[in-house]
Design brief:
Elements lengths: L14 H26 L9 H8 L3 E3 L13 H13 L12 H9 L2 H10 L15 H14 L21 E3 L12 H13 L12 H9 L2 H10 L15 H14 L2
Antiparallel strand pairs: 1-2
Helix pairs in contact: 3-6, 5-6, 7-10, 9-10
Length: about 260
């Protein structure tokens, strides 16, 4: 009997060994793939519609760096004059003392700054309150009065500007700030109330009075495009855009539509 050789290879055929080696690598990989699919099979959003997904992933807040508009009450007298006062005071319409005409401003200046400012704020005769723009602060209207009176030789004191306190840094961070609304359709009535009413409200300087069908009939007959052109470029005593050059073309057209509709 010969002694057993411990170094004899246990497999006489190499194929079984190759199968074992392959299975040792393949089986863990397959198990890993199956486990991954099982874990992710219940992911959120798989069967949600687009609106539900957008709502779920929307940000919880935004950072507001600065306001797009400046603080109220900071317009200069010249800026206020350019927006509303010049419509009548540039040409001296409806009895308004013409800008720079010292003779026309003598009586106004004689009554004093306080009373003149009160008339400008509350309105007097053909002039509507605050020149037709109620959004102005009283202090802004007073600056415009001082600016005009100064052009006629008065030495009235302009009111001091309000101090605007700087906001603390923490105030700039806000939570859940809604997105700004899309710009809407121009408001013809608002433009009329703040600009056009100065002349069209009373029918001064040949302006067709608001709602007067007889006065508007020949103008409406020329067509809406002709009315737009006259309002945008100016005609007769009416300056371009009624003197409010900051208005957009769309705003002016909306005001024309509003007035024309009221005369039908």
């Amino acid at each position: 009997m010969q002694p057993r050789d411990h170094h004899v290879f246990p497999f006489k055929n190499w194929k079984p060994l190759a199968v074992i080696v392959v299975l040792a690598f393949v089986v863990p990989v397959v198990l890993g793939v199956l486990l991954s699919q099982w874990v992710t099979s219940g992911s959120k959003g798989l069967h949600e519609d687009d609106s539900a997904i957008l709502k779920r992933i929307q940000p919880v807040g935004e950072v507001l760096l600065a306001s797009a508009s400046g603080p109220k009450g900071q317009l200069t007298g010249e800026q206020v004059y350019g927006q509303v006062c010049k419509t009548c005071h540039d040409a001296g319409l409806a009895g308004a003392p013409k800008q720079g005409d010292k003779a026309a401003w003598v009586k106004v200046i004689a009554q004093g700054q306080a009373l003149t400012v009160a008339h400008a704020i509350k309105g007097i005769r053909a002039m509507p309150p605050k020149g037709g723009n109620p959004d102005f602060e009283n202090v802004e209207v007073e600056r415009a009065v001082v600016f005009m009176a100064g052009k006629a030789g008065a030495s009235w004191k302009e009111p001091a500007a309000k101090m605007v306190a700087s906001a603390p840094a923490a105030a700039f961070a806000t939570a859940a700030v809604p997105a700004p609304a899309a710009a809407g359709k121009p408001d013809g009535k608002k433009v009329y109330d703040t600009t056009c009413m100065v002349c069209h409200g009373t029918g001064v300087a040949g302006a067709p009075k608001f709602g007067d069908r007889a006065a508007w009939a020949p103008r409406v007959k020329t067509g809406i495009d002709a009315l737009y052109a006259a309002s945008l470029k100016g005609k007769g005593a009416m300056p371009a855009k009624g003197g409010a050059t900051t208005l957009s073309d769309a705003d002016v057209k909306a005001a024309v539509d509003y007035m024309a509709a009221a005369a039908k």
